[in-house]
Amino acid sequence: MALSVTLQVAHVSTGQLFRETIRRGGPTGQAAQQFIEKGQLVPDAVVIAIVRGWLEDHGNRPEFIFDGFPRTTGQAVALDAMMRERSLPAPVVILIEVPPEVTLERILGRLGCETCGALYHATFDPPKRAGECDKCGSALGRRADDNETTVRERLRWYEELTLGVVAHYAKAAGLRRVDGCRGRQQVFADILRIVKG
Ligand code: AMP
Questions:
Q1: Residues 150, 37 contacting (CB under 8 angstroms)
Q2: Could you count the other beta carbons within 10 Å of the beta carbon of residue 36?
Q3: Residue range 57-94, pLDDT digits in tens
Q4: pTM of the model
Q5: Letter string b/e over residues 59-98, b meaning 16 or more CB atoms within 10 A of that residue's CB
Q6: Looking at ligand 1, which atom is closest to the CA of residue 43?
Q7: How confident is the model at residue 173, as a pLDDT?
Q8: d(CA 123, CA 94)
Q9: Residue 101 confidence (pLDDT) above 70
Q10: What are the pLDDT digits (tens) for 137-193?
Q11: Bridge partners for 110 per DSSP
Q12: CB of 69 closer than 6 A to ligand 1?
């Protein structure tokens, strides 16, 4: 079960917000798509605006999970300011550590259901029937940016910019590390223990 379902809080993935914006069409989606398909990061101003918009629409409950955000120090500084503006407590920041080659293997095997969002892995967690979602029977597909060239570029930007976020939260003593190389249930249990404090 997803962490957000267990904790009954909203799950905000900036990547998912971008994919929805692209599907709806319009200039913001078009601008973001150019970066996403090359495996580059969407510029901070665009990311921060989309998160600010989400908080304005849904942030009335003080608990939510950000996934894939912040990815740069600039985004982390903006998030700190947005939390202060709303008098929200400092976030719990969890770094799930996985070596680059394992990340690559996991992403290249990822299959997703367009209808209900369920995720599978072609080798480690295959659906019961090839190409079909166990939960709703819809077709499974791969994300266009889950190809080796793009993933290697995403990993390069992770090293270049996102490691700065790790340093940002490590300094503020708010960073918790979880070994992501173990089974899903162990990783899930560790995260739950941290969040429930
Ligand atoms: P994800 O769904 O988290 O894998 O994100 C997919 C793509 O969306 C990334 O490779 C980036 O191009 C873009 N993206 C998502 N979140 C961010 C973010 N916080 N900052 C910059 N770009 C992002």
A1: yes
A2: 20
A3: 986 777 899 999 999 999 999 999 999 999 988 899 99
A4: 0.94
A5: beeeebbbeebbbbbbbbebbbebbeeeeeeebbbbbeeb
A6: 21
A7: 66
A8: 27
A9: yes
A10: 999 999 999 999 999 999 999 999 999 999 999 987 679 999 999 999 999 999 999
A11: 121
A12: yes
Give distance in angstroms: CA of 83 to centre of ligand 1: 21
Which atom of ligand 1 lies at the shortest distance from residue 67's CA?
Answer: 3
How far from each other are the two terminal CA atoms of the chain, in whole angstroms?
Answer: 20
Report the separation in Å between the CA atom of 143 and the middle of ligand 1, taken as the mean of its atom positions: 13
Instruction: Judge if the beta carbon of residue 168 lies within 6 A of ligand 1.
Output: no
Q: How far apart are CA 17 and CA 42, in angstroms?
A: 12
Let me know: does 104 contact 148? Beta carbons within 8 Å: yes
What does the block give as tokens for 18?
A: 């971008």
Q: What is the 3-state secondary structure (H, E, C) of 81-114?
A: HHHHHCCCCCCCEEEEECCHHHHHHHHHCEEEEC
Report residue 59 CA to chain centroid gap.
Answer: 18
| Secondary structure class of 125 (helix, strand, coil) | strand
Residue 137 three-state SS: coil
